[in-house]
Amino acid sequence: VVDRRAIQLPARAARPARQAHLELRFGAIELARPQSKFLRHLPKSLPLAVVDVCEINAGPGAEPLHWRLITSHEIATVDDAWRIVEWYKQRWIIEQFFRVLKTQGLKLEDSQIGTADRLLKLVAIAAKAAVITIQLLQARDGGQQPIRVAFNDNEINALAALNRQLEARSKRLKNPHPPDSLTWAAWIIGRLGGW
User: Fold this and answer.
1) Which residues share a beta bridge with 23?
2) Could you give the CA distance from residue 93 to residue 154 in angstroms, rounded to a whole number?
3) Among 69, 101, 168, 180, which has the minimal tally of Cβ within 10 Å of its Cβ?
4) How far from the centroid of its chain's Cα atoms is residue 106's Cα?
5) β-strands 45-55, 3-9: how paired?
């Protein structure tokens, strides 16, 4: 064991957010070239680094975390190894982005656009929408981002007008969030969707 640290694990579908106490090990490895005669032109081996983190004392009912991460990045220090762990933690956001983009939200793969140029434009627009959708989900789940990370002045003004209409429909349901927060926008958009 080279180092120990606690990290915050975000909530997932089957797991609530929690703090994980981890033990870290890291080192260098070499991956040998396959023995196929068709690959002899490749180097005999590939130098890589491995980072191994194991959770200690996961708690009752929690499956202990154990990640073995192989990377081409040089790892010379403990901080280098923890950086790889932090990058790996971000994969959940990346996976969520592609889920929203491709299957569970914008269904980009169902597009019938025939040219690469038009498809590229659609992907650019859809990617922005997917990022905003994820930011709104994070805000709903307790994130504290400012509204301007996702919306411009005209969009904020439109949200304010919608908020006034939504609040006028019910005396009991008032937007409890500060107007400069993304959570405020998430509340409005959620109400539009029937929440």
Assistant:
1) 4, 54
2) 28
3) 168
4) 17
5) unpaired
pTM assigned to the model: 0.66
User: Which residue bears the tokens 């983009």?
Assistant: 101
**3-state secondary structure string, the chain?**
CCEEEEEEECCECCECCEEEEEEEEEEEEEEECCCCHHHCCCCCEEEEEEEEEEECCCCCCCCCCEEEEEECCCCCCHHHHHHHHHHHHCHHHHHHHHHHHHHCCCCHHHCCCCCHHHHHHHHHHHHHHHHHHHHHHHHHCCCCCEHHHCCCHHHHHHHHHHHHHHHHHCCCCCCCCCCCEHHHHHHHHHHHCCC
The burial class, CB within 10 Å (0-12 / 13-18 / 19+), for 146 is: exposed
